[in-house]
Amino acid sequence: MVLKLHGLPMSTSTTRVMICLHEKGLDFELVPVDLFARENKQPLFLAKNPFGQVPVLEDGDLTLFESRAITAYLAEKYKDSRNDLIRHESLNESAMVKVWSEVESHEYDPVVSQIVHQHFVAPMIGKTSDQTVIDENLEKLGKVLDVYETRLSNTKYLAGDFFSLADLHHLPYTFYFMKTPWASILNDRPHVKAWWEDISSRPAFEKVAVGMVFGEK
Amino acid sequence: MVLKLHGLPMSTSTTRVMICLHEKGLDFELVPVDLFARENKQPLFLAKNPFGQVPVLEDGDLTLFESRAITAYLAEKYKDSRNDLIRHESLNESAMVKVWSEVESHEYDPVVSQIVHQHFVAPMIGKTSDQTVIDENLEKLGKVLDVYETRLSNTKYLAGDFFSLADLHHLPYTFYFMKTPWASILNDRPHVKAWWEDISSRPAFEKVAVGMVFGEK
Fold first, then answer.
1. Contact criterion met (CB < 8 Å) for B102 and A64
2. Which of A171, B65, B156, B178 could be disulfide-bonded to B49 (CB atoms 3.0-4.6 Å)?
């Protein structure tokens, strides 16, 4: 039975899962959800995810939401297929994948998402970008990336010398962030820059990036 | 070698890990970190966690940070000890643990932590509680708990009919939230109330709750 992913090719949460599916070489059907028509707040969708958010993955009878839970599920179920994204054979390596995945969730995502939203989303919905919010978050982002720079001068990827979910989860928002006027914050840090160029040129991401046209219209 | 946990018995992140250690029946040494003296921002601590936050777990040569990564590591390493908190024998059940753990992280924690901080922390550091922030988050919390109420009318715990990390992660902040004037938001929802009474009366949590005196002085 083919995997069904409900979401949008420009949504950061949806693409987080799509990249994982491509990394694992899995076939899936992308079922579009019309967010503008609030399809995600209708009973049919709420039955799949009561929080009314994309993405949702249907794998036979199993219905999952929360993008990072879905990638972790796929990485576990298909751990022996292509790259092992959770390093299941090593307790220590898998622990580091968990640590740096949580860092993405709690240190990186809240900061970079605010910048992307203020820069791209606010104008789209008729609001003015709040430069104070952007500046505050740029400062926070700089501090987070200082930690990344030190980390990535010791290991090639965040969790160690292996590509993992911890890196993958960064791709969608960083891709949009690099289209803002502040990409230099990342490019000025040589190890972070090299890491970004590495992970963003992986074929699995390139397949997904072509649909990430948010902010281009 | 005994596990070393660096943190504070009143910190929500530290207690998240302590509860897990008690659930697993593991001995550990709690190494106090003097946050008021900014010990967590000194080189010795930053070498353990470059983000300068408690808790940090040292297990022999392995140093871990991010409370939810630590609980997931402990639950994996000691999966056969006492309660299996990640349901490793069932791919579907472990997927639901992942989903509801992410819900705690992204839907519940950001909302409840704001209320607790405004109510307890702001006055402690000489600021005025911002009632607008509290009200906004109480409204959001109500919506999240509506979803929980429906979920918990179908399953005894969040991920299914078994206690898991997904429930455990809720304990620290909910414990403090229940000391605010708005505990009725939770108590008015009978299935959520029954779930809270169940998980907060587990012996592993009761051992930890006695040290959670934040907001009482």
1. no
2. B65
